[in-house]
Amino acid sequence: MPTLFLPLSNLLRNQEGFKRLFTHFKYLHTRGGIWTVNTTSTPWISKSALVSRRREVPVGQLTARNMCTSFSGDKTSWLWSVYNETKQQTQDLIPVISKNFVNPDTIFANNQMSLQDIEIYGFDYDYTLAFYSSHLHTLIFNIARDILIHEHRYPEGLREYDYIPNFVIRGLHYDVQKALLMKIDAFHYIQLGTVYRGLNPVPEKEVIAMYEGSHVPLEIMSDFYGKSSHGHTMKQFMDIFSLPEMTLLSCVSDYFMKHNIDYEPVHLYKDVKEAIGDVHVRGIMYRAVEADIEKYICYAEQTHAVLRKLSENGKKMFLITNSPFDFVDRGMNYIVGKDWRDLFDVVIVQADKPGFFNDRRKPFRRVTDKGVLLWDRIHHLEKGQIYKQGNLYEFLRLTGWRGSKVLYFGDHIYSDLADLTLKHGWRTGAIIPELRKEIKIMNTEEYVHTMTWLQALTGLLEHMQVHRDSASQMVIQQWINEREEMRLRTKDIFNAQFGSLFRTYHNPTYFTRRLSRFADIYMASLSCLLNYDLQHTFYPRRTPLQHESPIWPDTGAMNIPFQSHSTTTGPE
To answer: Among residues 105, 124, 271, 520, which one is catalytic?
Structure first.
């Protein structure tokens, strides 16, 4: 039984709506600035919106400039009439568009992939098998802040700062030399309005002066794994554990500026990085989570259901994590039960990713249930045993699990997925918890209304900019101001400081660029797998390139009901 059903009637249930939608945006986005007037095939567009009733112009292809020169009335009134007509037509489309919500439990494809071809499933642990509550970020922030005070002699006044949920988002870049946090798009341009020093935004003029524009040159961007090294001054924060680190950097900078304390940004970055690292390396976080696991781990039932489904269908499974065995064992006991190791054919802890995928020198080492390291040479990776470190090349030799029959899931696009897809041909799945929140926002009436009108208004600006007289330009400037206001509103609706994880105003973010390159599929949580059978093929949506006409309806992620044996839902 297929897990998704899409009756033909669903596609055609509002054929007229799709026709109107397509015709309207074709009208706003025709080739080379040429407007096609065809009132026979598009009766819903009134003639007054396109040409004046009082002028005699042959029906056919007219340029915007042509339309104006043959118009005998007031040009300003004509521009506003086009504006008002377009706005009304856009509002008429809202009910149609609003029906096509995106399902938050969808698995999205960057690259075509069939689960029928997957024989082996691999997993990271943190934020892949184990989902954590927001309490964990507060814990990490507080411990790292106290380490700065006690061990690095930072001011006691820093205790005034608590963790600020939703201040930052994943994927931001941090200029180590300037102590600036910012969002950068796929083309290395800073999204102005998203540059923060401490807890305060930096004025756009100041940003442009510092960077001699808004473009960040390749040579100062972070390295392949998002790190600041070898002369790179930008660090990209890509994993979910980095949220408290970014917040702590911002809070300490804020304290220094408020108290007029001169500080070296490079030292601040290194000290905060070390303090955050100590929270993990010293086992402080692990012990805290183990002591109150119900407080910190969420959605255990859904994760267990996914693993059970794969096991019942005869799939092999393995776990490769950087976390220590005791921590993983305590968490998996809570998520699955004491027999959790029976589900996995191979378990590797403290793997030291991404080095695990590149460094051939580290051999595997067996670990006892009590954490004792054994010295015997590893000739086989046995089910039920625990292994530490090692490297992927040895893993491939011992298991023979190569190529596209392997699908590995992780939340860190660089450390978990990049090398696997680029060097080894494994299929990759990214776990992006932020997806669920952002999709719910995109499904709201406010967002649909704003984005539809924003696109229509952008189309108007594109075509009407040819009118260079002062009266027309005053009208167009008002439209530009309105567009800018809507762009800011669509940013703030996701996050008041930095906007969406996936977009700047219109471009994909740098995060999205890497996600689309390194992940074959991506989803909000592993629980999304419960909605698909293991024969399912994921197809990427064919979104039009800039030179292509949008001649097909986009139904790939519409709110199509899932047909599944499971009634569980993913994390909110």
So the answer is: 124
Whether a cis peptide bond, with omega within 30° of 0, leads into 540 is: no
Question: Is 117 considered catalytic here?
Answer: no
Known active-site residue 359: no
8 A C-beta contact, residue 250 and residue 498 = no
Rounded (5°) CA angle 468-469-471: 125
- Coil, strand or helix at 426: coil
Expressed as residue numbers, the domain containing 322 is 112-131+294-433
Q: What pLDDT digit, counting tens, does each position of 448-485 carry?
A: 999 999 999 999 999 999 999 999 999 999 999 999 99
Query: What gap in Å lies between CA 228 and CA 223, rounded to an integer?
Result: 7
| Residue 116, amino acid | Q
Domain end (from 433, 456, 484)? 433
CA atoms within 13 A on the CB side of 355: 10
Gap between the Cα atoms of 513 and 507, Å rounded: 10
Residue 138: C-alpha distances to residues 126, 133, 270, 300, 425 (Å)? 16, 10, 21, 21, 38
Q: What secondary structure letter does DSSP report for 413?
A: I
Q: Is 411 annotated as a binding residue?
A: yes
Reading the block at residue 494, the tokens are 């996701």
pLDDT digits (tens, 9 = 90+) for 251-262: 999 999 999 999
- The number of residues in the chain equals 572
And the tokens for 557?
Answer: 């992620």
* 126 annotated binding-site participant: yes
Residues 463 and 397 in one domain: no
Closest CA to 502 of 522, 528, 529: 522
First vs last Cα of the chain: how many Å apart?
Answer: 28
Q: Is 175 annotated as a binding residue?
A: no
Query: Distance (Å, rounded) from C-alpha 501 to C-alpha 484?
Result: 20
